[in-house]
Amino acid sequence: MAFTPVAPRSVEESGLSMGLLSDLALKVFYFESYLSGRDLALRMGLPFPNIVSVVLEFLRREQLCEIRSATGRGGFSESTYEYVLTSRGRDMARDALDRGQYVGLAPVPLMDYVEAVRLQGLKDVLVHQRQLRRAVSHLVFNETTFEQIGPAINSGRSIFLFGPPGNGKTSIAEAIGSLLMEGDIYIPYAIEVEGQIIKMFDDVNHVTVEESQPHRVDSRWIKIQRPFIVVGGELTLDGLDLTYNNEYHYYEAPYQMKANGGIFLVDDFGRQAVRPTDLLNRWIVPLEKRIDFMTLHTGRKFEVPFEVLIVFSTNLEPKELVDEAFLRRIRHKIEVTDPSWEEFAEIFRRVSTAKKIPFSEAALAYLIREHYIKANRPPRACHARDILDQIIDIAGYLSVSPTLSKELIDRAALSYFVNF
Predict the structure, then answer these.
(1) CA distance 228 to 176
(2) CB atoms within 10 A of CB 201
(3) 341-416 belongs to CATH 1.10.287
(4) Cβ atoms within 10 Å of 145's Cβ, excluding its own
């Protein structure tokens, strides 16, 4: 790994002001009856020697906390002393909570986060043909598409997947994600920008990696798999900017910031409530400059790296969504077409086996002839799964074993296909 965060050895090395550290300590104390110095250090994710001990000394000097007991669990070292807030300290803690209710691991400075993203970007990730073939071995699509995917991943930039629905665009993006998730990166739990806190770690979108951390690793950072974040029709322009919580007075990082070092998939592009051109205009600078701009509610703007492989996936015609100027900014355009009859047959065979339905070449030929060729209907990669699921549902209703009989095929097709 190119980056491992090293635990700070002093308040100065933490990159945080004594004001921010003391406010955080007061808020932690406020929600606890009392804490030992060692427990406070764990809550803040900072070493006790020379940092938390200095914060506690400052709080005691300002008469904001006092020693409750010098005989805490674990011996008589200073880190085991138990501390409690004074009346003045509780007042100051309430004032701190009015300004911001973030209580958790201490944040890291913005410049430390920026450096970490640059060091852990996708520029050094190189996918080889053999790795990719293994990652997509569960999918069936033509060789032309396969040969386009590898270089697109290695660009670490942007991919535009387009084509008819149901042919595996999302599955291809997920396979790319699984390939990149083999690598791990560190992200901070939270970031500090001019005294404002931005919560970065998201237990919904980030997958933590269990490890026995070396003694010197900075506990404010969390080791995760490279992110793979997916948004669909719910995406709005607001979701691409810092979200300020008016009740708790801290920020949540936007999707693309949480995806730094990994993949950001915009699925069903064009189905969002916001106009596609508005979304695309939001991406122009990040795609060209590899930087993004965030704005605090104070009006202060700052830049963050845009080290994301962004994937747009759409069922709509590209010309309906984007103009030529924007398509130039997207590095790789990959059309995912309908499967050939040979590919469709292979998909059908694989799915039949997986669902324990005896496969029959004759039955498949009947399905293709009666419900595709005669109906002038193109095959889609998802049809095999869906039709076989229909057969299972119908067979269950009839109390018979699911098979590829003409009766079950006809009934499945009748209830699945809609003639336009």
Answers:
(1) 9
(2) 18
(3) no
(4) 19
The packing angle between helices 37-44 and 53-61, to 10°, is: 110
Write out the CATH class of domain 113-335: alpha beta
Contacting residues for 33 by C-beta, under 8 A, at least 6 apart: 84
Q: 């790994």: which residue's tokens?
A: 1
Cα–Cα dist 21/28, whole Å: 11
DSSP letters of 27-87? HHHHTSS-EEHHHHHHHHTS-IIIIIHHHHHHHHHTTSEEEEES--TT-SSGGG-EEEE-H
Report residue 190: phi and psi, to 5°: -155, 160
Task: Point out which residues pair with 295 in neighbouring strands.
Answer: 301
Contact 80, 67 (CB under 8 A): no
The reported pTM is 0.89
Domain assignments of the chain as residue spans, ordered by start: 17-105, 113-335, 341-416
CATH 3.40.50.1240 assigned to domain 17-105? The reply is no
From CA 271, how far away is CA 284, in angstroms rounded? 20
Lowest mean pLDDT among 217-231, 319-333, 376-390: 319-333
